[in-house]
Design a protein that fits this description.
The structure is a homodimer of 365-residue chains.
Chain A (H helix, E strand, L loop, with lengths): L1 E7 L3 E2 L5 E2 L2 E8 L9 E5 L25 E2 L4 E2 L4 E5 L31 H14 L5 E7 L1 H12 L4 E7 L7 H15 L20 H14 L2 H7 L18 H16 L2 H12 L10 H6 L4 E7 L7 H13 L4 E6 L7 H4 L5 H8 L4
Chain lengths: 365, 365
């Protein structure tokens, strides 16, 4: 695992018409590139992810977010493939985001940071790849927002990757998902400590922003499913004596508090707003005449993996892409994995889809 | 329509072991009671409802929340039936709630208000009926939390009502629904203007509590459905120029802001916390050996109406009650109404189930 930062001085022309300049991208690589650079796989992360997809940092207990898939001898085999994982621009884990300096000012961008889209994120990633001398990819793989990036790559740069594997994603974010994001947007905006974005860096390191924690609670509902909550928590109470206390908690409530309070100390609220905006505006058809025209551009072999209990991006949204591609005679495969883990299944039920990824990468699927 | 308040000086013994004394219940009646008091129907409201189920107040534009069903010549025909609709205790629309005086103190209860349960709510309603000389009901009808009350009535007082009609409800609140409520609980608690409940009455009349508005946004997600959001809003933008503005809004976002900001000026945040608590703790089996034992007590004819797109209380939860009753040889009917309006269908898709209610009330179903 190599952790690196790439700096860019040329302007990044954004979909909004604005410019990001300079900017930087944090990334990690695993494995070695082969002589003809034909073994490169790009991994794209989701809303709260980072470039740290695999391996364990010294002193850390937790491995990267897809460590179960990526590594020597694993499904995305780093003895065979050269894997690159980048942090999206707008995020707060090393790539340029709203709390970075608005060059040449010494002040952070804050709300002056330009709105970014999924198109912008992959454009930046492509610039990174160019800088590394990589002009073609064996595959692009990602789940959720990472799956959006993979699909957007397939549409915007049809000749760039041979294989696209998109999990738990969609062709355009639907109002249901925008609704969940709305909770976070309003909870952050209305939190007095957010100060319209005029907070100082590291303000929330010890005492996370409540608004972000609250938005994240809504997020966690959409990442789970009714069934997974039933089997994980049922109606169990943290403390049975607490049943008649107003703030006594069910186990599902404790889970949400625990995960979200931690998160609000780690993640920057402005980055959250900007990334959520990129998710909300995701629409493969934008910039093309129609969704059909956008999808018709795809030349890669596309694999779409959805999860039966995904309550954020429903299986039928992925199926819709597959149906269109099949009607067009394009190369696509669709899998609906039976899972009760909800949207989170792409992070936790690796066993259920890892063979699909393995076969696709090795041209066996 | 008659709007009244009934005051009680005898203690209400609560499920928690605590006592509410004195207390009052706001209620409305429609139609006339017949000689043998055999034509009485009780209507139970949902989380944000009030006793105002039908008719229009002078000067108001909006009718009661189930005005489409209740009235002269309507499905719940007030030329035939005497309809009573009460505001649940804990609420803020006339019945005793946390912002009322903690007698004999002159100060509101606030967080000293006792935790209430659905069992407590119906016990109070039964006391009101006794006071009015009503010892038997033709029917009890309610949706969502109102449907919980109807079912709890059937279990706790098996001989009290002939017919129970419960819509869009459940036998016990599942962690998925508790998760949505958690957003509201945390958003209210953590709002500095909530002041741990030490705010003064009418504080939020002009400038609603943000925490309540945010919690309500999460609520609105659960009241709608992915399909209803798609057809109502799609991916339409309020202002197309706003696509690349960070806080530019989709129509679904505007809908949520509009509805929730209004709500936060009308509804008391402490009442919201107490009612949400009652919903979370709802479990028909509590106090009995098992759900089976609880349901076995029911003597009424039970009608269970669910909605195919209800993403808050899923059809299978209602079906579960019907299955148990049928296995026991009890009198129950289950209907799953095909609707894309989600949980809200019980308030908006009246045409789709009004005939069922009519037939059941008139012994034709």
């Amino acid at each position: 695992m190599k952790k690196q930062i790439a700096k860019f001085t040329k302007p990044l022309y954004l979909e909004s018409g604005r410019i990001l300049e300079p900017y930087q991208i944090a990334y990690e690589t695993y494995g070695k590139i082969n002589k003809d650079a034909s073994n490169v796989i790009l991994i794209c992360h989701a809303l709260s992810g980072s470039a740290h997809a695999a391996g364990v940092y010294e002193g850390d207990r937790k491995a990267g977010w897809w460590d179960g898939l990526i590594g020597d001898g694993k499904v995305i085999d780093t003895e065979k493939y050269f894997v690159i994982s980048t942090n999206v621009i707008g995020s707060c884990f090393g790539s340029t985001g709203p709390m970075d300096s608005d060059y040449p000012k010494q002040e952070p961008f804050r709300l002056r940071f330009p709105v970014l889209t999924i198109k912008d994120m992959i454009k930046a990633q492509k610039n990174l790849l160019s800088k590394l001398g990589i002009h073609h990819l064996h595959a692009i793989i990602g789940g959720s927002m990472g799956g959006m990036q993979a699909l957007q790559f397939a549409v915007d740069y049809p000749n760039f990757a041979d294989k696209i594997i998109s999990l738990a994603s969609t062709y355009a974010t639907q109002p249901w998902a925008i609704g969940f994001n709305k909770v976070a947007i309003e909870a952050i905006r209305r939190d007095p400590r957010f100060k319209d974005g005029q907070y100082e860096k590291d303000t929330f390191k010890e005492d996370g922003l409540d608004g972000l924690a609250i938005g994240r609670i809504a997020g966690h509902i959409s990442y789970l499913s009714p069934d997974s909550m039933n089997s994980k928590f049922g109606r169990n109470y943290v403390n049975n004596d607490g049943l008649f206390e107003l703030f006594g908690r069910y186990e599902v409530e404790r889970y949400m508090e625990y995960n979200t309070d931690n998160f609000s100390r780690i993640f920057d609220p402005l980055s959250y707003l900007y990334i959520v905006k990129a998710i909300n505006t995701f629409n493969l058809s934008r910039g093309y005449d129609s969704l059909h025209e956008a999808i018709l551009r795809i030349k890669a072999k596309v694999t779409l993996i959805s999860f039966s209990s995904d309550y954020l991006f429903f299986p039928k949204e992925m199926k819709h892409i597959d149906d269109m591609m099949k009607r067009n005679g394009q190369n696509s495969d669709y899998y609906e994995i039976d899972s009760r883990y909800g949207h989170d299944a792409f992070l936790v039920e690796l066993d259920k889809f890892s063979n699909i990824i393995k076969d696709k990468l090795n041209n066996k699927g």
